[in-house]
Prior knowledge:
CATH topology: Growth Hormone, Chain: A
Number of domains: 1
CATH superfamily: MFS general substrate transporter like domains
Shape: globular
Low-confidence stretches: none
Largest sheet: none
Structural class: mainly alpha
Radius of gyration: 21 Å
Distance between the termini: 28 Å
Strand content: under 5%
Number of helices: 16
CATH architecture: Up-down Bundle
CATH class: Mainly Alpha
Amino acid sequence: MSVVRDLRVLLRLTNFRRLLAVRLLSQCADGVYQVALATYVVFSPEKQTSPTAIASAMAVLLLPYSLVGPFAGVLLDRWQRRQVFLYGNLLRALLACGTAVLVLASVPDWLFYGSALSVTAVNRFVLAGLSASLPRVVDEGRLVVANSLSPTAGTLAATFGGGLAFGVRLLSDDSDAVVVTFGAVLYLCAGLASLRMSRELLGPDPGPVPQPLASAVKSTARGLLAGLRHLAERRAAARALAAVAFMRFCYGALLVTVLMLSRYAWSSTESEGLGLLGLAVAASGAGFFAAAVLSPWAVGRFGPFGWMIVCTATAAVLEPALGLTFAPTPFLVAAFVLGLTTQGAKIATDTVVQTAVDDAYRGRVFSLYDVLFNVAFVSAAGVAALMLPPDGRSPLLVVLVAVIYATIAFTLYLERKKG
């Protein structure tokens, strides 16, 4: 069956469309909110941004709520996921409005980061729940295509939301508070969209003896250990998660590089720098879309791990060839390539995890997945802070990323050869 035909079949599935709508609205709001934070932290005229400042901001925003990940997983395996989407998005809408007030009040950075952290902490529940819910609305035979369409469409929605944020910011006289408020409206819409699905549809199925909430919270540590043990028994899933975490490290290091290049090396004004950053985000989004189109065929042709090898090997060759120029046009091409390869590998990983992990553990494993992503991302920002000069030009960092990509490809090849 062709990819186009599979996509048409998926879009005819009512519950899949409804879950997809929640994802699109949620991640579009995420894109708006993230761009508002980036422009406030990186491109505000009164702030002298450095790689260390960006790394610090990422650490404040990502590492603390990585601790929420395991709690999210254990609770997602007990709470009705539809309700998580409803109340999670309503709460994010309220918290985002609070962030807008803080931006207007020009509060100290620590208070602003605390508000942003509260929004992104709730995000863990929503994103992990979306991934864990997908097998409930799609049969196993079409999971690869669903994993190409759904998460990639969400990423494109986030990219589109980022573009909307740039437009709203220009129309509102560079007001970050207005942009954040616009994101809050989209979070509200996402919460309301979840009401189109029944409470029981997305699971999880009730256990023999349902646990009350207090008991579920107390058993978080035991549940996390059980999830880790289950993952350790599923070697394919563990191997895929490790590979995609290292790829996330590479992507994070290059993102900080692009931020610094856009801020200082490629532009002389704030608006010019924002425009170049927007083009890089758009190029990466186009790569995500290409991955959605290519991945179902590629996974069928090479297998999930074979496709991951192709992605990492391609990145290992093209990333230094394009990145070492430190010029805008080659970097935009590199953004497209890395968007394609990163999302292609993630699609393959999602499919491996969803098919190898039992439904009762999916919430926990996908939450661990998120923790790995965030720790890798923050670690990359820390390494970039140590290696990047003020203008963002570091040949050593570009070469290091290429070596990591090559190592991932070679390791996966050896593992595949062993069977």
